Amino acid sequence: MEEKTEIQKTEQLPAEKPAETPKKKKLSKKKIALIVAAALILVPLGSCVYGTLTYKPSLNGAAASMGEIRSTVSFSANVAGEGREKYPVPETTEVEKVYYEIGDSVKAGDLIVKFDNSDAVDAYKKATISYETARLQLNETEKDYWDLKEDLDECIEDIEFYKEKWKDYEDYETIKPDADKDEIEANRLYNNYYSKWEAAKTKKETLEKQIPTADFIKIQQLNFEMTKMNLDAAEEVYNNLPQDIYAQNDGVIETIGVTDYGTAPKGTMAVSILTSESNVVEFNIGRYDIGDIQLGQKATATIGGKEYTGTVTHIDPVAKNDSVHAEVTLDNADGIVPGISAELDIETYLNDSCLTIPIEASKTDRTGDYCYVARDNGDGTYRPEKVYITTGNSSLTSIEVLEGLNEGDIVITNPPANIDSMTSANLTLA
């Protein structure tokens, strides 16, 4: 029997089914646009963050330096309506002779008033003599005190010395039978030293009576100080004695405030003269400025674009309409038209050698005035440090520093509001 052999085909299968390759997805135009926009935002943002981490603020600074502080007060003024020369009396004195009357014409150089300053001169001489006398007396008394004190100290030493000596021989009893000479010598020495001791005591009593007491010296010191004060007062009057009045320009006597052989009180307008030119600028001082203006202060008048120097020569003693009339006498009246307006600057303070800083660098809080000083960090940057200072006068641009800073210190000008939080900053010097 024929056997049939069946051959079966077997299919070879892989151990695992291969994974399917994912299909590439296409990005839509919308998504691409969003990604680009995000990139555009993130790039500058990253730059800002980096810049913030590396940024250092910049401060402006200026060095504290020696300079000038000049304070002025400004006024609107007018040149006197008519040319006028005024001669006030600087110190009370006596008048010897008035040579003209109101309405008289005078020429430049004419003597108008002659003063008699003999009383003030005599008072000054007497004060000088009293001062010198008191000074010499005090010096002599102090010298006597120390000389007598030295003599007294020496005398006290002698008393102690001679006392010890005569005490040594007072109880001399150890005398040998054959030593009569020793006993005699001992008695002689005893008597000698005892006498010297007695003399030293007498001298001490005399010196103690002669030496000036502390109260006596104190009285002479007070007398000396009093004579010094009297001399200073007399000297001030003497140095300000009115000089005889001469007309500076041709003109007419407008007023005369003194008489022959009369007393001219301080501040009296002795004479005023109307002239063809005016060297007097009139202005009014308001109540807020009256304390700053004084006789003798320097002034600058700007008239017609030209500057003229002068001095404050008159301030009315009484206010009118809440202001005080005052005058500046110019050094030169050439080209000045009476009645024309003027701008007047009066110097109220001047220190030509003081430590200054820009005025915008100075600040004030409840504690006092202060500024910020730039301290070097050592890496090219600076940290601001708050420093309290003592300030003086100021000008439009600078302020005087009396304490708290040294020349060369760098101060921060116009410090920002957040300066107290700064630890590192760049610095730009003005």
Notable characteristics:
6-stranded antiparallel barrel, 4-stranded antiparallel beta sheet, 22 strands, 430 residues, conserved putative lor/sdh protein from methanococcus maripaludis s2 fold, alpha+beta, 4 helices, OB fold (Dihydrolipoamide Acetyltransferase, E2P)
Structural notes for this entry:
The protein has helices spanning 29-54, 118-170, 180-210, 214-239; strands at residues 58-63, 65-79, 83-88, 93-98, 105-106, 111-116, 245-246, 251-256, 263-264, 269-275, 280-286, 298-303, 306-315, 323-330, 341-358, 363-364, 369-376, 382-388, 390-394, 398-403, 410-412, 426-429. The chain is α+β, with helices and mostly antiparallel strands and 430 residues long. Among the domains are: 58-69 and 352-429, conserved putative lor/sdh protein from methanococcus maripaludis s2 fold (Beta Barrel), CATH 2.40.420.20; 82-115 and 242-276, RNA polymerase II/Efflux pump adaptor protein, barrel-sandwich hybrid domain (OB fold (Dihydrolipoamide Acetyltransferase, E2P), Beta Barrel), CATH 2.40.50.100; 121-238. A 6-stranded antiparallel beta barrel has the order 2-11-14-13-12-15. A 4-stranded antiparallel β-sheet has the order 3-10-8-5, with no helix packed on it. A 4-stranded antiparallel β-sheet has the order 7-6-4-9. Helix 2 (118-170) runs antiparallel to helix 4. The longest helix is centred in the middle third of the chain and has 53 residues, at 118-170. The N and C termini lie far apart (127 Å). Residues 1-24, 42-53 and 174-179 have low confidence and may be disordered.
